[in-house]
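Justification of computing resources. Each target in the renewal requires a structure prediction run like the one illustrated here; the chain below, 139 residues long, is used simply to show the kind of job we budget for.
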Amino acid sequence: MESCIFCKIVRGEIPSFKVYEDEKVLAFEDINPISLGHTLVIPRNHAKDLWEIAEEDLTAVHLASKKITQGIAKALNPIGVACLQLNGPGANQVVLHYHLHLIPRVSGGPELPVANWELKKGDISAIKATAEKIAAAIR
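Resulting structure tokens:
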């Protein structure tokens, strides 16, 4: 896609700090990192989100993320790595090109609100009904 910033990075029109690439995937450092080592993993082929991405590109992104996370572990020795992927503006996806955030977590670092929520018992009948509705839509 011509105007997509991540497609421009793939084409080399915008510089990036690459950490990994293969025929299907490109990974580079986020220039607005949550923590040092915050890496974005993207498919080279443009796909807006999880609904649009081809299965082989999705597989490639997640297989690459395992390699990259192992590199993050060796290089930075984090206490954990958060994997975050958002779909659509309603989920705060800013760049509409599928991407997976790999966010190293360091001791004493800021909490990730999406990874730190209060556990509250849900309405079991509503949960059951929702599960049935989703399962029926998948079949």
